[in-house]
Design brief:
The complex is a heterodimer of chains A (331) and B (481).
Chain A lengths: L30 H9 L6 H11 L6 H14 E4 L7 H12 L13 E5 L3 H8 L5 E5 L10 H13 L4 E5 L2 H5 L3 H15 L3 E5 L2 H4 L2 H13 L4 E3 L11 H18 L4 E3 L7 H15 L11 E3 L2 H14 L12
Helix pairs in contact in A: 2-11, 3-12, 3-13, 4-5, 6-8, 10-11, 11-12
Chain B lengths: L21 E2 L1 E3 L2 E3 L6 E5 L4 E6 L4 H19 L4 H17 L1 H12 L3 H22 L17 E5 L5 H14 L3 E5 L6 H12 L7 E3 L4 H9 L5 E5 L2 H11 L5 E5 L5 E4 L5 H13 L11 E5 L3 H12 L20 H16 L3 E3 L15 E4 L16 E7 L2 H9 L6 E5 L3 H10 L4 E4 L18 E2 L4 H6 L8
Helix pairs in contact in B: 1-7, 2-4, 3-4, 4-5, 9-10
Classes of the chains: A alpha/beta (331), B alpha/beta (481).
C-alpha cells in the first residue's frame, strides 16, 4: 500500500467496522453472513423488469404535465464534464450555464449541481458561490476505481478540501465480482467518513455488473454502507443508465426506506440525452419509488448533452414552435 | 412548484374512426338488413349509444350459411392453398394499416384501455392472420396426416372480452385450412367485427367466405344449430358452452369450446417478488379481469404472504382507472351493466362469507360501468370467490405451505384453462408445471399470448386447442392432434 500521496492516510490496521442501520446490524458480521444476506435478496427477473419499463415507457406526458416534467428534470440535472481536456475555463462556462440554463428566460430553474473531477472542484465552487448549486466531484480513482484504498481516500479528501459538496465515488467492481462484498462495503464506509459533511453518491457501474441481480445486491450493499445516493454509471462504460437498471435501483431505495426509515437517492447517469429519456425516468420514479423521490434531493440525472434538449423542448412548449440547436448555448 | 407529477389527459383521438349510425349484417360480401329488431351498442365508459346494429334471425343465418356453403364448394375449398394464403396476408396487412382505427373502435365499444387495444389486441389479431397465412400452403407438412381436407362451413360464436382478437383466433385458422365462416360477434361488442367485414371487402375476399351475423343468444343458437354447419367453435361462458355441447351432441358437427377459468397464479417464496407482483397485476387486472385465463386465484406461499400483499397493494395504488381512450389508463370500464352486477354480487358474497375485501382509494367516473381493482385476502378454498369465475377485476388470495399443497389447491377447481408459476428455481417450474391440470402454464409471466402457442382448457374450461399447429386440427378432416 502506498502512502505517497497522503502522508496522513490511515494506518494499515483496520478500524472497527461501522454497522449498518437496524434491522440489518448483523448482516456484516462476516463475509459469509454478508454474502448470504445479499444473495438472499429476492431475485430480479430480467424479462419481467424489461416488460415493466416498456409499459411505463408508453406513458404519454403532454401539455401541463410535460412542462412540469421538463422543469423538474432541469432542476435535477448534475451538469457534468469529465474529460481529460477539462480546463478552468470550461468549468466556469459550465457553471454559468448551470446558473442560467436559458439566458432568454429567467423562469427557467437552475440545475442541481455541476459535476467535475476533484482538482477542478475549487474552480466550480468559486463560480457557483452563493447560488445554491452544489459542486459534485468524482473521486476514488474514477472511473475504474483501480487504486489502493489510501489513494482513493486521499482523492476524496482532496476533492472535499477543494470545495466539493458531493462526492461521486466508484465501487470496486473487481472485488464485487470476486464476491468480496465486505471489502466493497468497508471501502464505502471509509469513503463516507472521508467525505465529512459532503454527500456521498455511490457509483455501481452497472454496465460492468451486468446482471440485474448484481444491481440489486450492489444497491443494498451501498445503502447499508451509508451511501446517500446510488448512481448507475460513470458514463465511461456502455451500457450506462438503462431503464431496467434504474427500475431495480428505485425498487431498492423504496424497500430500504420501508425497512430502515432512511431515504436514499438515485442517480442514473450516462446515455440520457433527450427530453423523452428524462421524462421516462421521471415516470419510473413516480410509479416505482413514488412521488417522494421527485425532488433534486432524491433524484438526479447525470448528463452533459441532456440539458440542451430539455431547453429546446421547454422553448417549444413556451413558444409553440421548435427552434434550432443554435438557440441554446454550447457549453 | 408542486411536487406532484399529475399526468395531463392524453386522449387518443376518436376522429380516426367513423361509426355509422346503423349497421346491417355482412352476408355474401354485402351489407344487408337484418330481419330482427335492431339493438343498440353502447360505450360502456359513458353509456353513450354508439350505433344501432341489425339482429340476424334464423332466416338471416340460413342465408349466411348458404352463402358460406356456396363459397366453400365453388371457390374457397378448391382454391390453390397459396392463393388462400395471399388473402390472409392481405387481411393481416390491412389490419396493421388500420390498426389505430381498430384500436379506437375496440376501446369505444368494449371499454378496454387504448393501451391494451393498441399494444395487445390489434397487433395480436394481425399476428394470427400472418401466422395462419403461412400455414395455408403447408398443411401437408403440419403432421396432421396426409392431404388434410377442410371441413366445410364453420359456425363461430365469440365473446365480448377480446372482440377482434377472438374473431382472429376463429377466422384465421378456419380460412387458412380452406373452410368458410359464419361468425356471430357478442351483442355488446359487434363493431370491430363489422369493421373487419369492411376489411374483407377491401382485401377482395370472395363473397361468402366470411359472413358476420350480429345478434344476441337466439342468433347464436341459430348459427350453432344450423343443419348445414360442419364445425362449431365457441368461446364464452361455461353455461352457454354446455348448452352448445348439448345442441351439437349426436350431430356430425365437430366442436371446440373455449370456456371459463379460475386460474391459480402460484407465487413461491423464492420468486422474483417485484416481477411476481407485476405478474399478479397483469394476471387479474389486464382487460379489467375480463379474461377467461385470468389469474384470479393467487396462491402465495405463507412465509411471504404479508410481503407480497403489501407490495401488491402499493402497486395497485398506482393503477390509473378512467377514460379508456386516455393513453395512460390502466383500467377501463366494465363491459356491460349486466357484468357489473355479477361482479358486485360475487364480491358481496365474498365479503359475506368472511373474506377481507381491499380496494384502493379510487374515484370512479359518474357515468358508465366501473368496478375498482379488488383484492380479497383470508379466502378459503370453500368460498365462492375462490371457486366461481368472477370475470372482473377481483383477486382472491389463498396461501399454501408446500409445493404439494400448492399443486393440490391449484388443481382443486372445476376449470383448467391456465396457471402461473413464480419461482427463480428452474427445476421447480418444470416439476410443478408437469402436475398442473391446465392448458396453459406460464412461468414467471402471465397473460402472454402468441399465435404459435396452442391455447385451450381441461375439464369445464372446454376442449380443443386454438393457435399453433394443434389449432389447425380443429378445422381439418380426420386430423389427429
Amino acid at each position: 500500500m502506498t502512502h505517497a500521496l497522503d502522508p496522513d492516510a490511515p494506518a494499515a490496521e483496520i478500524p472497527p467496522r461501522r454497522e449498518p442501520l437496524a434491522p440489518y446490524r448483523d448482516v456484516t458480521r462476516s463475509d459469509a453472513a454478508f454474502r448470504a444476506y445479499l444473495h438472499g435478496l429476492p431475485g430480479v427477473d430480467q424479462v419481467g423488469a424489461e416488460a415493466r419499463t416498456a409499459v411505463l415507457g408508453t406513458r404519454s406526458i403532454k401539455t401541463t404535465a410535460k412542462a412540469w416534467a421538463i422543469d423538474t428534470a432541469i432542476a435535477m440535472v448534475d451538469l457534468t464534464t469529465l474529460e481529460g481536456a477539462d480546463t478552468p475555463g470550461k468549468v466556469r462556462s459550465l457553471a454559468a450555464k448551470a446558473r442560467r440554463p436559458d439566458p432568454t428566460d429567467p423562469s427557467c430553474p437552475p440545475v442541481a449541481a455541476v459535476c467535475v473531477y476533484g482538482d477542478l472542484a475549487g474552480v466550480a465552487e468559486a463560480a457557483l458561490a452563493g447560488t445554491g448549486i452544489s459542486v459534485a466531484a468524482v473521486a476514488t480513482a474514477f472511473p475504474s476505481g483501480r487504486a489502493s484504498r489510501a489513494v482513493k481516500l486521499a482523492d476524496v479528501r482532496d476533492a472535499v478540501a477543494n470545495g466539493a459538496d458531493e462526492i461521486d465515488m466508484v465501487i470496486d467492481r473487481g472485488a464485487f465480482l470476486a464476491g468480496r462484498y465486505l471489502d466493497v462495503y468497508d471501502e464505502i464506509v471509509a469513503v463516507k467518513e472521508a467525505c465529512g459533511d459532503a454527500h456521498l453518491k455511490v457509483i455501481l457501474e452497472t454496465g460492468e455488473l451486468v446482471t440485474l441481480d448484481n444491481v440489486r445486491r450492489a444497491s443494498w450493499l451501498a445503502m447499508l454502507a451509508g451511501g446517500d445516493f446510488i448512481k448507475t454509471s460513470t458514463g465511461k462504460i456502455s451500457p450506462a443508465a438503462t431503464l431496467p437498471v434504474c427500475l431495480v435501483m428505485l425498487e431498492a431505495v423504496r424497500d430500504f426506506r420501508a425497512a430502515t426509515g432512511r431515504q436514499v437517492g438515485v442517480k442514473p447517469a450516462g446515455g440520457i440525452r433527450t427530453t423523452k429519456d428524462a421524462i421516462r425516468h421521471l415516470v419510473l420514479v413516480n410509479e416505482v419509488a413514488g412521488p417522494d423521490w421527485l425532488s433534486p434531493d432524491r433524484f438526479r440525472l447525470g448528463a452533459s448533452s441532456l440539458l440542451g434538449d430539455l431547453l429546446l423542448q421547454r422553448q417549444k412548449l413556451r413558444t409553440g414552435h421548435y427552434s434550432g440547436p443554435d438557440h441554446v448555448s454550447v457549453d | 412548484m408542486t411536487r406532484l407529477f399529475e399526468y395531463a389527459p392524453a386522449p387518443e383521438s376518436r376522429s380516426i374512426v367513423d361509426v355509422a349510425p346503423s349497421y346491417g349484417l355482412f352476408v355474401d360480401g354485402e351489407f344487408v338488413d337484418g330481419s330482427g329488431a335492431p339493438f343498440k351498442t353502447i360505450n360502456p365508459a359513458t353509456e353513450e349509444v354508439l350505433s344501432e346494429v341489425a339482429t340476424g334471425t334464423a332466416e338471416d343465418v340460413d342465408r349466411a350459411v348458404r352463402a358460406a356453403r356456396r363459397a366453400f364448394t365453388r371457390l374457397w375449398g378448391p382454391m390453390r392453398p397459396a392463393d388462400r394464403g395471399k388473402y390472409l396476408f392481405r387481411i393481416a396487412r390491412l389490419l396493421q394499416e388500420r390498426a389505430r382505427e381498430f384500436a379506437v373502435l375496440e376501446s369505444l365499444d368494449n371499454g378496454k384501455p387504448i393501451r391494451e387495444s393498441r399494444d395487445v389486441d390489434v397487433p395480436l389479431a394481425a399476428a394470427h392472420f400472418l401466422y395462419h397465412a403461412g400455414w395455408a400452403d403447408k398443411l401437408d407438412w403440419a403432421g396432421l396426416g396426409p392431404g388434410p381436407k377442410p371441413l366445410g362451413v364453420a359456425g363461430q360464436v365469440i365473446p365480448w372480452n377480446f372482440p377482434l382478437l377472438m374473431l382472429a383466433w376463429k377466422v384465421a385458422p378456419a380460412l387458412a385450412t380452406g373452410n368458410t365462416v359464419v361468425l356471430k360477434p357478442a351483442e355488446t361488442t359487434p363493431l370491430t367485427a363489422l369493421l373487419f367485414a369492411e376489411v374483407c371487402r377491401q382485401a377482395d375476399l370472395p363473397p361468402g367466405v366470411v359472413n358476420i351475423v350480429t345478434g344476441a343468444g337466439d342468433t347464436g343458437r341459430a348459427v350453432v344449430g344450423h343443419a348445414d354447419v360442419d364445425k362449431v367453435a365457441f368461446t364464452g361462458s361455461t353455461e352457454v358452452g354446455r348448452s352448445i355441447a348439448r345442441a351439437v351432441a349426436g350431430t356430425r358437427k365437430k366442436l371446440t369450446l373455449e370456456l371459463g377459468g379460475k386460474a391459480a397464479n402460484i407465487v413461491f417464496d423464492d420468486a422474483p417478488i417485484d416481477q411476481a407482483v407485476e405478474g399478479i397485476v397483469q394476471g387479474i387486472f389486464f382487460n379489467q379481469g375480463h379474461v377467461c385465463c385470468a389469474g384470479s386465484r393467487l396462491l402465495v406461499q405463507e412465509n411471504v404472504h404479508d410481503e407480497v400483499i403489501a407490495s401488491l397493494q402499493r402497486r395497485i395504488g398506482t393503477l390509473r382507472l378512467g377514460d379508456p381512450l386516455d393513453k395512460n389508463t390502466d383500467i377501463g370500464a366494465i363491459n356491460s351493466h349486466l357484468q357489473l352486477e355479477r361482479i358486485r354480487q360475487l364480491a358481496d358474497i365474498g365479503e359475506a362469507e368472511g373474506a377481507n375485501r381491499w380496494q384502493p382509494a379510487c374515484d370512479l367516473p359518474e357515468r358508465g360501468f366501473w368496478f375498482p381493482p379488488t383484492v380479497f385476502t383470508d379466502v378459503s378454498p370453500a368460498h365462492r370467490i375462490a371457486r366461481d369465475e368472477v370475470f372482473g377485476p377481483v383477486l382472491s388470495v389463498l396461501t399454501f405451505r408446500t409445493p404439494d399443497e400448492a399443486v393440490a389447491k391449484a388443481n382443486n377447481t372445476t376449470y383448467g384453462l391456465s396457471a402461473g408459476i413464480w419461482t427463480e428455481k428452474g427445476s421447480r417450474i418444470l416439476a410443478i408445471a408437469d402436475r398442473l391440470r391446465a392448458g396453459v402454464v406460464w412461468a414467471n409471466c402471465f397473460n402472454e399470448f402468441d399465435p404459435t402457442s396452442p391455447f385451450g382448457g381441461y375439464k369445464q374450461s372446454g376442449y380443443g386447442r386454438e393457435g399453433g399447429r394443434h389449432g389447425l386440427a380443429a378445422y381439418l378432416k380426420g386430423a389427429t392432434e
